[in-house]
Structure formats: C-alpha cells, structure tokens
Amino acid sequence: MSHQPELLLGRSLRQARELAQLSQTEAAQKLRITPAALSQYESGKRRIEALILDRLAHLYGVPVTYFFDDNNHQNPLPHWETHLRRMAQDLSPEAKAGITQLIQIIHQLEQLYQITHTPLPVNGDRPLHHPFPPLSQSQYSNDQIAQYAQKVRRHFNLGMAPLHYLKTFLETQGYPVFSVPLGGGNNSLTGLFLCHPTLGAILVINEKQSYTRFPFLLSHEIAHCFFHWDRYAVLCPLNSNDPQEQFADRFASYFLIPPEGLQELLDTMGIKTVKYPEEVIHIARYFGVSYGDTLHRLGGDRKLGVSKEHFKGVKPVALATSLGYSYLPNSFEIRPLPPEERLPRIFLELSHKALNQNLLSLRRVAEILGISDLELEDRLNEESLEVPEEIYA
Predict the structure, then answer these.
(1) What domain of life (predicted)?
(2) SS3 of 75, please?
C-alpha cells in the first residue's frame, strides 16, 4: 500500500503523455532525461522531483494538479480537444508540443471568460454563424478562387484596401488569433483552424515561420475558416499538395493582393510587368505582404517581365531600407514574440480585467501571458494601471 500514491501518480503521468500524443522517447528527449527514467516515473518505481513534475505539466499542457486528481481518469476530454490531439498524432514532437501548448492556452482563455463573468462569444443564444456554405475539396481555377477571396472582402466591406493590420482587424470582427510554435522542419505546420464550441472560429499560425509571412499564413487560415468550417479542425502542413491546402494558399494570395488592386497599382507605377526587385518591394510594402509571397503572386498572374532567377539573391529588408522604407515590426525575427503577437486581444483584456478585480494574482497573470513578473509590472506602469497591493500575494 505504501506505493499506491506513486502508482496513481504514474498512471496520471502516462495518461497525460498519451493525451499529448508523445512517446516515452519523445517526451524524455524534450525533458533531457532518459526514457528509462521516465518509464520508472510512470510505473511508480521512482520518486519524481517537483521540478521534473512541473516540466512534465508544461510539456503535456496540463496543470500540475492534474497528476494528483484521480477524477481525471473518469472525466472525458472536450470533443474539440480529443479531436485536435488525435489529428496531431503523426506530427513532429515539436509540432505536437505546440498543439499541446495551444490547448492549454485555449483552456486558459475559457477560464478567463468564466472567472470574469464575461459572456462567451458562442452559446445557445448566439450560435456560431458562417457567412458562406462549405466547399468541397475538388479543384478550383484561379479565377474562381479570386472570386471567393473577393466575396470575403465584400463580406468585410474591404474593397481593394491593403490589409496592414490583419490580426487586429480580424480580432475586432470576433476571430481570435493565436501564434504558437508548431515545428520548424518538413513535418511542421504553418498553422491551423479550429471551430471551438464556445470561443468560435480560432485561427492559429506557426510563430516559428518568418514574421513577414504572418499575413499570408493568417489569410490561409481565413480560407479554411470561411470555406472549410465543416471539417471542425484543419491542420496545415508545410508544402502540402492537398487540394484544400492549395485552395487556401491561392485564396490568401488573392485576398491580400486583389487583382483589381494589383492592376491599379501597376497602372499608377506606369508598368505592365515587373522587371526589377525594387518594383517587387514597392508592391510588397503597399499591400503589406512579404517579398517572397509578392513575387510568387506576380509569377502566378504572369506579371513578371523577366525570369524569376532575376529576383533571387535579394535581401528584402536591406533593399526596402535603401528605398526609404522603415523597418517592419520584428523585421529581424526578434524572439520570443510579445504577448500582443502571440495571444488574441481578448486574452490580454480579460487577463487585465481579472488582475484589476483581484481575481488573479500578478504572478499568475504574468505566467499565463508568458512573461516575467517584472515585465508585467513595467507594462502596467506604462499603461498607468493601478495595481492593488493584494495582487502581489
């Protein structure tokens, strides 16, 4: 009987690892321990240190208390979480860890809504509304996809305007945007779309991708959000040949650079086709799209007057600076990204609301925002927020 607590803890450790779709070897590598040591923890044959337990909780995306609550073995996971974890089972360990991190953050957002008594975006009174019927996975022509992109622009009443603050705009429309690390190799994801039962349509991009590609990746997820929402969740592998992914890629290109807007800009520039890297920079900066994505779009629309080889070897940041453009935010891939780039605006707002109402401590809010206590204090001072003494408890 003396080993009963260790056996229960070990069973919880194994269940949490399996939920995260990680093998013992994968989990041990992430923790920098041996698979044999992890096996002994899970079998109850070895006592586990508090630091290792905390690291396991972070890796598996569960609170430390999960390991000591026997009810977890009887309570089923929400359907959306089970579905998402199952879809992630063939991903790289890094991508699996990112999915787990995303699930943890989504649960935190749900809890913030709950403790602040803020109405959820979706419930029985306000169901999730999709403006367009879902599309099949059959092939579509470029003209058809351009028309679908134009439909979404008309839905938002955007006209041909460039979308320089796409994340901010989407969140004002009720679409929360998350950035999490989803791997950096061939078996990684560029992002994903999730139809959540109470938070609504969630858009996620891989924060390990180049920051200048974020608008394109986000527009890719918009395509899934508006036209593939019947899939419940869509994971987007890097360099996928799936027709659904090809549709989303081409949609993103036309959504960010509408054909009429591109032609109008070319007319203003006094050119019919693009022949110089400087012209690509001007077009990219006008529409707020990366140099590479702009070049790809111009090639697809046969707007290049010379071979693509002519545009290789260009350093877009240096060239843009020489043309008088200012640096874009995070042009030099500053990591980690600040909370404003990683988390939806509503997450930050509810965190501050919980802090100001003494519902969460400053330390806890800093933890869920992924920053230090000192950084949060500095942020609060900059925002001139009054922090009650009780929150330091």
Answers:
(1) Bacteria
(2) coil
- The residue assigned the tokens 């019927």 is 133
* 356: number of Cβ within 10 Å: 16
Helix (H, G, I), strand (E, B) or coil at 7: helix
The pair of structure tokens assigned to 369 is: 């925002």
> Which residue, among 173, 157, 293, has the nearest Cα to 225 in the 3D structure?
173
Cα dist from 232 to 133, 191, 224, 306, 385, whole Å: 14, 15, 10, 43, 39
Q: Nearest 5°: phi and psi at 246?
A: -65, -40
**Number of domains making up the chain:** 4
Write the burial class of residue 354 (CB in 10 Å: 0-12 exposed, 13-18 middle, 19+ buried). Answer: buried
How far apart are the two ends of the chain, measured CA to CA in Å? 38
114, 248: one domain: yes
Residues of the chain with pLDDT under 70: 1-6, 70-75, 124-127, 328-335, 384-393
Domain of residue 271: give its range. Answer: 259-314
